[in-house]
């Protein structure tokens, strides 16, 4: 009898492993390992079919700048051997309190692909976010002629607040020191001769 089929063996393991199952989908780390093994299998299969060398350098050359159709999703490896992850735009579904992918960025094609999930519910009242920052990516589209007014007003108000807060503090400190001196002179015993 194989050791894996032994009930005592499974009983011993079950005390160390949590068997809780959830509906959250597969664990992302387990998925990444599974995809890596799948990609390696595709590379080895291609190398064997082409009867090329199975050295590490030859296998790596089969992987660079290439997209692999893994079972769960597309995996793209760039020219440096880095795995490019999928970037998704997700929409929060208020009916079942989950996020649903509505767009995915395909690295190999450098473009977004939309899923037919209906209209995106953008949070806030302004609708979809703008394609770039208000002043542009380099800041050259902002009107800087009015910024000096705000900076000057801020500096003046800051100085006024400092004077208003520090002035009474110095006044209290000065009065407290003078009262202490007056009290010391008044209580000092006289010389008796």
Automatic annotation (TrEMBL):
<dbReference type="InterPro" id="IPR028082">
    <property type="entry name" value="Peripla_BP_I"/>
</dbReference>
<protein>
    <recommendedName>
        <fullName>Receptor ligand binding region domain-containing protein</fullName>
    </recommendedName>
</protein>
